[in-house]
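Translate sequence into structure tokens.
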Amino acid sequence: MRGGRPHAPIRPIGYRPPRRGGWSSFSPRRKFRLIRTGVIALTLVVLISVTLSRCGSDDPATKSGSTTTTAKPKATTTSAVPLNLTATVLNNKLPSSHYQAQATTVGGKVLVLGGLSKSKSSTNVIWSFDPATGSTTQTGSLTSTLNSAAATAFGNTVFVVGGATPKGSVDTIQSYGVGDKAAAAVGKLPGPRTDAVAVTDPKTSAVYLVGGWDGTNPTNDVLMSTDGVTFTPIVALAEPVRFASAAILDGVLWVFGGEWNDIASGSIQRIDLAKRESKVVAQMPETVSRAMGFVIDDSIFLAGGRVAAGRSNQIRRFDTETFTFTQAGALTSNLSDAAVAVVGRTAYVLGGLAPLATNQIQQLSPTP
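Result follows.
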């Protein structure tokens, strides 16, 4: 350089010098524009996300984003369709006309124990009815002729409790094992008792003996047993009854109708088995005694029985909340004093008075 300004360095065509200073080198106006643009873009992103979350997928179980969650189902209230029953007379019959016998289920078969013949004589028969074939055969015999006893089963052993012989009410407890030729006496009740009913709690397997009389006085004590041999009083009925019907559902023992001093009852007695409290909670539309009570699918039914006008063919379903009965079917004839047992979802009504002694077997099945 001689005596003047230095020459600028020679640069290639298209060369741009590197920027220096970054954000700090931007002018205030340019910074403002960049910030404004960023805010607008962020706002648009938020708005689009909200819109998609509200108007996107119709599936409530799917949300936008990478996380999938299951929506909580709405609470719905459903009620089971009330169960009705259809009665059919089976082609096969009992070996002879029979009434005031007891029946219980063992191994899918129904054992019919004792009872009165069409000549009103006590019998000692033990019959086995097979629902699969419809046949009934005599498999054994009781220790004596007996009618109006109560019966229950523990495993493959049946216990026949009390009852009446030609000499009067007895306190004998008999046991019969499936396959045996004869029953055997295994114990005694606290006192003689006949015209009582035995009902088993399906949740505890305990059996309860309800109602009856000793030949003179009512036997109001409800007896409980867990082995079929030893019976202990737990509570007294609110009203004395013979020939009542009974059923257990959800820890409550229900006793329907019956009779005492030749006066029929329409009382519904409720026994809280946990609290051991008994009281009359309602009256039936009419008095009913000698009816057949049973449970299918957690519904209590009362079939037939003696009413003011004679015998009934009604099958009634009981509502444990309202204490009311609803017509749920009809037997094929007016009937009382029959034996009844349940196998699966089917009840079998065996023999009875219609009004004469009958050897028919009626099958009560859920109506399709």
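Note: The longest strand covers residues 136-146.
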